[in-house]
Design brief:
single chain, alpha+beta, Lipocalin, 10-stranded antiparallel β-barrel, 18% helix, globular
Amino acid sequence: MLRLKSILAATGLMLAIAATPVAAQAPDRALLRKQKEAMAALAFLDGEWAGPAEAQEPSGLIKMTQTERSGTLLDGTIRLVEGRSYDGAGKTLFNAFAVISYDVRTGHYLITSHASGYAISTQMKVSGHGFEWEIPAGPQAKMHFKAVVENGVWTEVGEYVGPSGKPRRTFHMEVRKLRPTAWPAGSLVSYK
């Protein structure tokens, strides 16, 4: 009987410990509302997109078909974007994934991008129906990306800016919105 009481007491303690982080992190409703409002400013990205793109590689200009899909998670407080490019035979040439969030305390958007074995987080500026961001690209160099979405067309340009300060275009896409999507929140794991 003493052993059973010890097991029950230990089980109760483990359950109490497991529940503590959840109780200690009660949601801040005002914070969540502001994050959701900030993500709503990027709702023009939601859906599935496809169209022509080109990338300037050391070996020359590569023409491809670019696809994008975008949607929200965490009740609309973060936005996910996946980009994929294909050659004429349907082989994947490039695949990138980004998480866009908004920090209410600083008033800044943050984009965390994963591609080609690298991950980087940087601030993202949002204005109207567009956005832009920069990432380091070596000593005194950066990559600058600017996107604009108008009339169902998402145009994005990537430029390398070296020590001279003169931009050189390395990427261009012009994708059209194909359809809405329930991705990524549309396929939740059932709890039953």
